[in-house]
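Task: encode each sequence below as structure tokens.

Item 1
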Amino acid sequence: MGAVISRVELRSIAQRYGFRVNDEVITINGQLLRDIIDYHFLTAEHKLEINFVRDGMPYSTVIHKDESDTLGLDFKDEIFDEINTCRNKCIFCFVDQLPADMRSSLFIKDDDYRLSFLHGNYITLTNISENDLRRITAQRLSPLYVSVHATDPEVREQMMGSSNSGAILKYLEKLKTHNIQCHAQVVVVPGVNDGKVLKKTLQDLYNLHPTVKTVAVVPVGLTRYHKCKNEKTDKKGQIVEGSDACTACGSCKKGHEIALRERVRLMRPSEAQQIFEMVTKFQAKAQKFFKYAFFYLSDEFYLIMNKELPRHTHYGFFEQIGNGVGLARKMITDFNRRRRYFPNSLDEKRNVWIITGVLGEKVIKPLVAEFAKIKKLKTRLMTVKNDFFGHEVTVTGLLTGQDIKKNIEAQLKKSVKPDVVIFPDVLLHEGKFLDDVTPEQIAEELDINITAVETSAIGMIEMTLGITRKNVPEELEGEDGPEVIYADEMDEDEDYQDEMEEYDEEEENDDDDIAEDDGEPETHLPDKDIEITAKI
């Protein structure tokens, strides 16, 4: 166990003391390094005694520094010991829905509280020990991200295939005792944890505010590799027509009861509507007492029901954006704030193809239409259906290289080759698409320029217009690049910023101050909405 150095910052303390790439740091002040959290925690001291290994030989050095100074080291991994893996057998586990021949790293089921704290990975709390809890408390690893799904013990145990997973409320109460906050998610499986079960879950999580900061409600996702054990298949593995068992995309044809795992299916629009109505009522209650929505539906709900997305301020600080909550609205808002500064014409002709998924098309299509107003710029939105995982998988993030290549290849037969094909970088994992195809392979085989862009409005705009933040006018630059406001939103956006600053000041003055209103807890978050001009 050790931290292998990947980079030594120039003119840093570490360089001055002779550290090199591939040195393996073992202990700091006598304590083993388990992860990057330990490293930052331990290197905050004035005096550091560091034991490390170089080329198999042990070394030791003592460093004196100001407590605020950093050493200037990067490491190959963030977890230096073994990742805590999940021992649950969830009925909708995505890893279990992958074909067997994919690369081994995709089959790692992490349930590690450290990755939850560092990156917002969701954990179940069923694989956490008392030692883990003591460390979370001691190092204030907050907030965490927790997959709840159901607070009903029996339902949660059935969903997670684990006899010790039913005590989720007990674990959340422990976090509450130690003032550790969390963001929760509920993946809704029709007929399993919806209806009364969902209502109880939302109420229980509401009662745990402010330990639970937000709750994301997400529809279950299934790939074509999610197969029912009772399905009848032919020699080629195809489902036989008239099979009685449930399929991945529908319902049981004869309505008979079968095992829980076998009746997992996708959500119908009517069921999505019922959940939408239930969550909306809980949002109104939370808005009254907490002054923010607290419960958030993922973008998929609005898109599959063809409902208008909530306003930008509905999502607060977008704390669940990694869970597909508010990503579409943020894309639209950020695009609107920049389109005022689009040029009337490019200096040279430019042809750009933009890759998206079926759901993404609903968000991206009206935005890409704005590019048509720019002279010498030609854009094509390429909506790619997911043949690899099945057409029921409509999110952009699960598109594969082979499906993208197939669509580009077909389009090249009837269109002029583009200057560049762009796709969101969320599609890449370790530099590869999920099916191990790389952008470089597609580029070489089709003789095209294909490149990943930041999964944001900024990334799409910059590459489409052929600009970078380096050549943005100085007066428009900000910490994260051009932060310009669309004219119709300017006044309201300034009001929104004032409210955010007020909230930050209140939080600094008294983090623990919670007002009371009719016996309900209350916090202070901005609830003013900004009108967005682009709608779905």
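Item 2
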Amino acid sequence: MLIGNSPIRNLHSGQGFKPESVRAAFFNRRRRQRILRILSLPLYTAFILLFQTSCTYLNIGEQVNLSGTWQMRPGFEQSWTDSMDPDGFQDLETPFSIDINQSEKYAITNGWITIRRILPAEMAHKLQEGQPLTLRSGSLSSVGYFYLNGQLIGHVGRADPYESAMGTYFLADIPAQFARTDRDEQILSIALYTRGDYPLSINAPMVELGTPLGMYLDFFLKDIFTGVLLALYLLVGLMHIFFFIKRPVEKYNFYFGMFCIVAASQWFFNTGMRHVFFQTEVLLRERLDKTTLFLMGPFLVFFFTQFYYRKNTRLAQIFAGVCALLAVLVWFMRMPGIDICLQIWFPVVLFGFGYSIYINFRELRRKNPEARYIMLGILIFAATATSDILNSLKIIHAPFLSEYGFMFFVLGIAGILGNRFMNVYNESDRLNKNLRELNSSYSRFVPHEFLQHLGKNSITDVELGDGIERNFAVLFSDMRDFTAIAESMRAEETLRFLNAYLTRLTPIISSHQGFIDKFIGDAVMALFPENPVNGLRAAIAIFEQLNGYNERRTDSGQSLIRAGCGLHFGEVILGTVGSSLRMDTTVAGDTVNLAARLEGLTKRLNVSLLLSDAVYRALPDGHPYLIREIDMVRVKGKQLPLRIYEACDADPPALRDRKARTLPRFIEALTLYRQAEFDAAHTLFAECHTAVPEDTVAENYLDRCRSMYNTPRPDNWTGVIEFS
């Protein structure tokens, strides 16, 4: 039989505070925030204590705990409840815990037992004066009937037909008419009954008597406050599980989160709320209760070992293994076996508690600043647990502090972990910021778009040999006579001039969904994914910008800046080349080579913008651009001829308009030329050149036609020109 206080009280802890200069802390924002964080926990707890104490004890009357000397006798008779006849009764001191195997006279696991005592004189007088009083007991394991002077006040559970109380509290008003006015003694009796499935017990507080307002407020506010704490521990646990998901490397967050969740469950099984969910499943409730109780220790010890050592030590694993075994065994046992598991668990958990103290003390000697706060929490736990035990044994008289100490313990560690997580987060944020700045700096050398096409988020992800094949329009742009221009400038002037020129090109290419792959001296290589029309638009925009720039240079007496562009479309290879010590990004393939050759041909043909046949065929029907075919060439390394086109939109507007008017004659002349009708072609090319003297292409064909006058017509004439 067990009569008296519950064997388990909750664990407690708290946080410490390192003294600092008040003046320095006030004028230092970070220190001021740290002080407020440290002070917030005790201030919040003090508020909760004050609130609960004021609600419970402010003007609500006197409450008396009836622990002390009772009389006990196996069996039950109605007459025993209205008399203090000592025959067959023996004294019983409560609260206490007695193992049912220690004494045969207490080994009642099937049948009745009656306990009784005389009410304190002050409470007896209140009853005799007709003042209302309320009786409250701790949770009863089986069935309990409560009597005052032989009259039934009420009961929990039922003896016939049998219905277990399942740990229910007894709370009821005592009718004023039950008081005996013919004598001073007012006898309170409790008849306990069990059918054998659970030992008889009343958990602490065994029996309390007081005014109705005080008793009901104390009873319900306690569960409300406990429910708030339960939700708080559950929230803290889930928060640290979330921390673990965000940073799996920090396993201590997982163990602390699980400890809080299991502790919240254990708190639930020690509140009246458990009756709502387990009205008839007392065995299931007890199994869940003991399982959560047995698992709290392992999660806490694993938290300490992971927090300090980043691993689970051998002793921690042994301790956790024993606790886990006990947690499993309770699911295969009924009540006597579950109690045996509980008896075994007591020395095991003491070992776990001692090992936790050892771990923290060891870190304290190593001057770990976090260990100071955790060690303080452990000391608060030990002090509050000891106080509650001594209070239950009536050695001291003090309020029960277990729930507040446990709140200090959990929130204190949560604050330490939160501070560590925020430090890691801030450091990670700082590193990310540095990485963004680094990527931004690298993007000036390696385009971000290049990384995107490689499927990389950062330059740090790039490895030697990374590469893809995709269709790109490749644009080469080169400044004419840059060497001659640079010879008239000093070195710094040359760089300023070159950067001013290239700075005008960069935003134009970006605004047309392209990106610059390389600056090659005064030349630019740009890429346009998938759509070659963007490359054409960008090239035309470059010459429009250059034409406006030349107008300003002309007004200031400076020489004109001329450029040539070649644009080709096709499959290229983007990737990295080099070695593990030095590598670079590159674009390779025939498309790149042909685009470079086209840019070179602009010098030979003295035109601004040349397109390949692949670009021309990719233009949509009805496009607004003035494009004329000007030649078929065979470049070095290629067997098949390449049909090339001039984009006249790159010329100044007046020149473009004049070329547009001569376009029909130019096309006819080109057709005659390819048919080897050189005289007729010469006549038409001459008309085109007369109308547009700046048309260098027509002038070039005039020279070709003249050279063919005295030359026999070739048998295999195709009009294709070979370029080395």
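Check on item 2: The two ends are 109 Å apart (CA to CA). The longest helix spans residues 402-442.
End of task.
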